[in-house]
Amino acid sequence: MEPEIMLWITFIRIVGLFVCISVAGKKNRNKLGWGIFGFTIPVIAIIIILLLKPLPAANEIEQVSQ
Question: Where are the domains of the chain?
């Protein structure tokens, strides 16, 4: 492959990684897992994480169970 194409692919993967980590953090989801997913398949991962609903925070779960 051409070096320019490889550079763009790497750039898109890194952007996908940071977008997925950022959105996953805001939605109380696993940042590491979504970061790996965002790096390997960036476009699909970004679409999926944007469509998912936020998980309740840990302190909200404890309050509901009491």
Answer: 3-54
CB atoms within 10 A of CB 40: 12
Name the nearest CA neighbour of 23 among 57, 50, 56. 50
Q: Which two tokens stand for residue 6?
A: 């490889």
The model's pLDDT over 2-35, given as tens digits with 9 standing for 90+, comes to 999 999 999 999 999 999 999 999 999 999 999 9
Q: Which two tokens stand for residue 22?
A: 């950022």
pTM, two decimal places = 0.83
**HSE-up of residue 17 (Cα within 13 Å, Cβ side):** 10
